[in-house]
Amino acid sequence: MQGDLAERRLTPKEELDLKNKRTGLAIFQVSWIMVFFCLMFVHWQIRIQSPDWPPPGVEKLGVVVPSAMTLALIASSLLARRAYRALRAGQIETFLWNWRMTIALGAAFVLVMAFEWLTVPISGQYSNLFRVLVGFHGVHAVVIGALLVRVYRSAMRGAYHSGSLWPVEGAAGLWYFVTIAWILFYAVLYWT
Amino acid sequence: MASISVPVGGAPSQPASRPRLRVSDYLRWSVDHKIIGVQYMVTAAFFFIVGGTLAMLIRLELLTPNLDVVQTGAQYNTLFSVHGLVMIFLWIIPMMAGFGNYLLPLMLGAKDMAFPWLNAFAFWLIPPAGILMIGSMLVGAPEAGWTMYPPLSTLFSGDGQTLAALAVHLLGISSILGAINFLVTVKNMRPAGMSYWQMPLFVWAIVATSIIVVMATPFLAGALTLLILDRIAGTTFFDATKGGDVLLWQNVFWFYSHPAVYIMVLPGMGILSDVLSVHSRKPIFGYKMIALSSMAIGIVGFTVWAHHMFTSLQPELRIPFMITSMIIAVPTGIKIFSWLGTLWRGKIRFTSAMLFSLGFLSMFVIGGITGVMLAMIPFNLHVHDTYFVVAHLHFVLFGGSVFAIYSGVYHWFPKITGRLLDERLGKLHFALTYIGFFFTFFPMHFVGMLGMPRRVAVYMPEFQGLNATASIGSFVLGLSTFLLIYNVIASLRGGRLAGANPWRALTLEWATTSPPPATNFVGEPMLFEDPYGYGTEGATAYLDAVERQFGAPPQALAADKSVSPAAQGASGD
């Protein structure tokens, strides 16, 4: 259980594979965030065309619960980072605990936002935009969250005790992506 | 100057036996980039024929001013809508991806792409998308053109529009996955001793293209998601009567689709840079300028999208977009002059590949100049939505991209199959294509300036002369395609063996057998330090070493001076 797992000698091919995956993930993050920018642009374009925002008679979205959930998601990402570091240092127990917390906070975020999504008052563009943005982000959160769970189950079976840590690193990288994408949407939905 | 980086020569190793190509390998899932590359190309060629058939129907309809081929304007709308969608998303983009897939690892001396599985996955998204696209014609066909402007695409088109949008969505995702693969491969898998400035210019072009794909195509994904939601989920993002905005679609769509025109032409420019240098036996003129101008086009390409909307845009935004649109002609001009500089005093071999590249140069310049004309607001307002625009876009997409594709096919067919295409048929193909193309699309400039709108099946009788010319030209153009298809099939069966390096080219893909073995190279690839260092003693020594190692072209070929310079003496290199 002790010792830096990352120090395990990689063959040149494994080393290249790992490097490729890291580069690929970075490019994917930069690329796919553009969809979120696109939807932000859509939100901005539609709202500057409306004389009143939110439209008259529509209640502005409450900001307290989503803010708490945003903090939970950020904390979850930070815990994922701590988990990955612990794994690199060979501290499997610390890794598992942090990863569990990552999943728990992520699940809380998804569930609460799903509740918000279902209960938003129907009001034309205002609620449509909310639902499309939160829903689009939610799909990513659920799919990548499922990946976190899968990594956790593999870890419980001992898959990362020695050998490739990439699934953990990759899943964490995608979870950061979910977090950053949410911060963008959070800013436009609740603070503009 | 030039030296050989990897020691070559010594005892000639026995030439590896030529791997056999089996059709069945191409019909199933494979992670070999060479098979995937060919799968891309053949699939794309199939859709080229589909799109071409639609084009023939369009031109047949326009032979007379009245409705004759189609019964209603709506049917005509379907013809040109699906023609555009198929040609752009299922022919040119996948075809360029096919070249990229086949050539990139070979040019970089790599065994495969960075992510072989992902590569295969990206390809296998295309056939279902193609089926959706063809199926869209059967269920309430799309009628909103390839640009899918709402409210045409939301309130007036049938269910086929949804299928077409889904198809384009899938193709966009396929494109993004492919581009990520290209970028990672180029960044991480170059051989030791090849810096970025020693990469073939085709690789540079693919890098620039891939950057555009990863940054722009997500916008298409976002836009199509909203369009599909508007169509099936009752949202109203593009419905102006319910607080939506039709300009929103135009902005988001063109933010992708203008860069997409560079996605379609930059790889072609890469093909041109390689072909022109090899077949004029001269170092490419301005290597760095060509490489960097691709990047410049990629970056500036993101700032010009609203020139597609001069008539609908807020007037105060027109001038800035006019200026950026004109600026983008500068890097393009740098390329054109660099290619002319490459040709200047070269030992030009008028092979079919070279002829198509020269055809690209001449036709693309016309398309580029009409592009600058269209960037000028007063002129643009005059010819907006007329046949002038149709002429312009076909000059850059057919006269540009498709000519480059043809050039690439003649140039790399020997590498892919081990056999040469018939040069005499190739030249006939070129002559017919060039003439047919010119007479199809050049008259459209005139009818456009005279005021004939695009996307109409019925037009004023006084335009019939020019339209009939265009239609007859297009039939010649359509027939010329079958010469290439015949040539490919005949050459696959009984074409002359090509040897490893029939054109005596210096880039790495030629320093292995044709077709290459499953691992591309046996042992370390033999790298020459300057991919365009033709005409030096080092280059001659290197090319002779490649011939010793992988076998010279068969004698019959070497004696044919028009094809191979081998018989012209070493000084020709």
Tell me about this structure.
The complex is a heterodimer of chains A (192) and B (573). In chain A, 78% of the residues lie in helices and 0% in strands. By secondary structure, chain A is mainly α. Chain A has a single domain (9-191), classed as Up-down Bundle (Four Helix Bundle (Hemerythrin (Met), subunit A)). Chain B has one domain (23-572): Up-down Bundle (Cytochrome C Oxidase, Chain A). Chain B has helices at 23-26, 33-61, 73-107, 116-124, 126-136, 152-156, 160-188, 201-232, 246-279, 287-300, 318-327, 329-343, 352-375, 377-383, 387-417, 423-450, 464-494, 537-550, 555-558. In chain B, helix 7 (160-188) runs antiparallel to helix 8 (201-232) and helix 9 runs antiparallel to helix 10 (287-300). The relative contact order of chain B is 0.11. Chain A binds chain B through residues 16, 19-20, 23-24, 27-28, 30-35, 37-39, 41-42, 45-46, 49-50, 55, 124-125, 128, 132, 136, and chain B through 114-115, 176, 179-181, 183-184, 187-189, 214-219, 221-223, 225-226, 229, 235-237, 242-245, 247-248, 251-252, 255.
Task: Write the SSE topology.
The complex is a heterodimer of chains A (192) and B (573).
Chain A: H1 12-49, H2 64-88, H3 92-119, H4 125-156, H5 166-191
Chain B: H1 23-26, H2 33-61, H3 73-107, H4 116-124, H5 126-136, H6 152-156, H7 160-188, H8 201-232, H9 246-279, H10 287-300, H11 318-327, H12 329-343, H13 352-375, H14 377-383, H15 387-417, H16 423-450, H17 464-494, H18 537-550, H19 555-558
Helix pairs in contact in B: 2-3, 2-4, 2-17, 3-5, 3-7, 3-9, 3-15, 4-7, 5-7, 7-8, 8-9, 8-10, 9-10, 9-12, 9-13, 9-15, 10-12, 12-13, 13-15, 13-16, 15-16, 16-17
